[in-house]
Every structure is written in C-alpha cells, then in structure tokens.
Amino acid sequence: MSADNKTIGVLVMSYGTPESLEGVEAYYTHIRRGHPPTAEQLDDLTSRYRAIVGGVFPLRENTNRQAEALQRTLDKLAGEGAYACYQGLKHAAPFIEDGIAAMAADGIREAVGIVLTPQYSSMSVGGYLKRAREEAEKQGIRFRGVEEYHLHPQLIEALSGRVSEGLARLGDDREDALVLFSAHSLPAKILELNDPYANQLLATSATVADKAGVDKWQFTWQSAGQTGQPWLGPDILETLEKLAAEGVRSVLVTPVGFVSDHLEVLYDIDIEAKKFAEDKGIRLERIRMLNDDPQYMAALAESVIGAANGGHGNDE
C-alpha cells in the first residue's frame, strides 16, 4: 500500500488467532511467552478449536473483514485517502510491531491505534497501546491511542438491538428471562491498581440494559486463565449454578467484553456454558456478535477520527 504523507495510519489491534489447527502450538507458545505448552494443555486447546471450527478456520477472516469494514467506514466519513488501516495482533502475525513497520514503509508519519475491545484495562488495551507506541517512536511516527469507547452511542445501539433480538428468539420464555452480561476475566490484582476495566464493563452493561428496556440482568466473568493466581469472579458456570438454584429457567448471554465470534464465545459460551445450563434446567441463548456490524464500525471510525483530531485519544 502506498500512502500520501498526509494519510493517517490506523492500527487495528486484537488478540490474534491461529490460521489453522497446525498453528495452535506456535500460537499457544507465544501466549506463554515462549514456553511451549504441555502435551495436555495443547490437546485441550486444540480440541476446543476443533470443536468450533470442524476443520475450517474462519476466525482469522473475521478480523480481516473487520479491518476492511473499518476502512470503508473511514473512507465514507472522512474521504478516501484520509486514513489507511493496518492490522496489528498481540499473539499472531502480523504482530503489532509488524503493523507499525508496514506503516513506516508506506510513508505514514501519523497514526492512531484502536483495539477491538471497548473497555480499557492496563493489562489488555493498555498493553496493546504501549507496544504500538514504543514501535511508532522507533519508526518516527506520531502515535495516538483510543483508550476506550465503551459508552459510544453507536456501540450501545448495536448491542441493545441484539439484546432485544435475542429476547425475541426466546419466545414464550422471554418474560422470565435474565440477561447475563459477560466479559473475559482478568487477574484479580487489577483491583489493587484502580483499573477501570470492571467499572467500564458494568457501565456498558447497565447502559445497554436501559436502552433495551431490560430490568432483569446480571454481570458475570468468563474464560479465566489457569495461572494459579486469583482471577475476577464469579465465573459464568458458578453464576449459572446459582441462577438455577434461584429458579431462573432462561438466560440470554450478552458478551459485552467481546466483539467477535471467537473461541471464548463459540466454545466457552456456545458449547461449555450452554451444556452446563441445560444440565441445570436452564435454556441458554446468546446474542449475535458484532463482528463487522455497521454501527460497531461507525463507533470505531468515529473514535479513530476523534483521536486523530485530538479528542479521546492519548498523545505521546
């Protein structure tokens, strides 16, 4: 890609995913900071991927579609040539540093970074932006980062619409249904750092519930890592067990901390949590993920433009 020297680069960042089942070990090793997984750990992760992809691996293409859709939205809002999107992944190629290097090779001198996660944590979004900013400094690129967009009106509108749609799918079970908002757990030590992650997730959940006219809702955590240290809880399985004991019989899971169809949604919710709920006598449904939804793309694009113009971003 060639870029005009006035073009602003946009680094679209996400966690990353293997391109195929054969790439799972290298991916897992990178997550473990260069330490290969045990045979048992590798088999567990590979079996989870196999359960959701069935020999086909659409997850990487989903991130590609998001970046392409964001480019089209930016072109529409700001004019073609104003922005150029690049991908930067945390645990797979193209890595964050690769995306910044590609910008530099194309002559980009100014960039905005945005993570496909609406809520800020120093352990997630903060880490992505730090890596991108450090590489940008090496390349002589002025860098600004979008730290959060968890209450962007377009995001709230998109999520609330999906909640209403999901409740409608429940049919006769809708009246007694509970909306269960969820997000990826993080180590509990973030609470000692006054990290805003948990509060931003609750703010997103409350605002979406209000917009969708939902009174019965709760928030729960999911997909905690197995690190031997405490993680934020309760976990979704613990919450479902408690809800079953309270007589709840239908639940609409709304993963407000995720935007894409990926392992934590397609396996942890659709397979593991759904089976657990059924065993407890609960009907569990899930909202459709945002993926490249136009309203979500508008939230991203408007956040990028705002940061580029000196708003809501972090100058370094």
Automatic annotation (TrEMBL):
EC number(s) per entry: 4.99.1.9
Catalysed reaction equations from the record: Fe-coproporphyrin III + 2 H(+) = coproporphyrin III + Fe(2+)
SUPFAM superfamilies per the UniProt record, alphabetical: Chelatase (SSF53800)
InterPro entries assigned: Ferrochelatase (IPR001015), Ferrochelatase_AS (IPR019772), Ferrochelatase_C (IPR033644), Ferrochelatase_N (IPR033659)
Alphabetized UniProt keyword annotations: Cytoplasm, Heme biosynthesis, Iron, Lyase, Metal-binding, Porphyrin biosynthesis
Residues binding Fe-coproporphyrin III, per UniProt: Y15, R32, R48, Y49, Y128
Binding-site positions, Fe(2+): H184, E264
Gene3D superfamilies: 3.40.50.1400
PROSITE patterns for the chain: FERROCHELATASE (PS00534)
Reported function: Involved in coproporphyrin-dependent heme b biosynthesis. Catalyzes the insertion of ferrous iron into coproporphyrin III to form Fe-coproporphyrin III.
Cited NCBIfam families: hemH
UniProt family annotation: Belongs to the ferrochelatase family.
Protein name according to UniProt: Coproporphyrin III ferrochelatase
Source organism of the structure: Cohnella cellulosilytica
